[in-house]
Amino acid sequence: MPKSKVRKKSSYQPSPAAGPRAGAVGGAKAAKPSPPWYPVVMAAFLLIGLAYIVVYYMAAESIPFMNDLGSWNFAVGFGFLIIGLGLAVRWR
Length: 92
Description:
- By secondary structure, the protein is mainly α.
- It has helices at residues 38-59, 64-69, 72-90.
- The longest helix is centred in the middle third of the chain and has 22 residues, at 38-59.
C-alpha cells in the first residue's frame, strides 16, 4: 500500500484587522476594584434582610406596622436580601 504524503502546516498568523476590538470581551479594560465601603454596605443589606425576616417570625404580633403588612413582610425582607446579593455579584 502506498504511503500518504505528509502536508506541511503553516503557522497561524492573525491579520492586523482581526486584533482586539473595543467593546469585545477579550479586549475590554480590566474592571477597577470596589471601594472599601462596598462590602460593608453589601453585608449590611444582607444582615438587615435576614434580621427583618427573623424579627417578623419572632415578634410580628407586637410590632404594629409588621402586623399590618402581613405576608408582605417577606417581600420586604427578601427585597433587602436580593439587593445584598446583587451587590455581591458586582463586588470585585
